């Protein structure tokens, strides 16, 4: 397994954790402490995104996989960070949240499929 694949799997795991958190919070409307709960979670996602982008952008620029570009990858990083924050608010609009979640999932799976 390459570094790109490993980090992509880690991103997929973050995406699933975000989805589960959103669904649980949507039902129960939990209260979270910003510094104890939210900040460490969102910072962990951002850290993984930054490491993932550092690996995947050079790969996509040299390998030129079909239907994957640098802008798409940057959008994945932006979307996953946005939903990581929104997951703590169970009142987030479901369709909007779900669309971003599925978009991230789809693109990450394409990267995993095409990565060396």
Automatic annotation (TrEMBL):
Pfam families in UniProt: DUF1798
UniProt cross-references to Gene3D superfamilies, sorted A to Z: YppE-like
Name by which UniProt lists this protein: YppE family protein
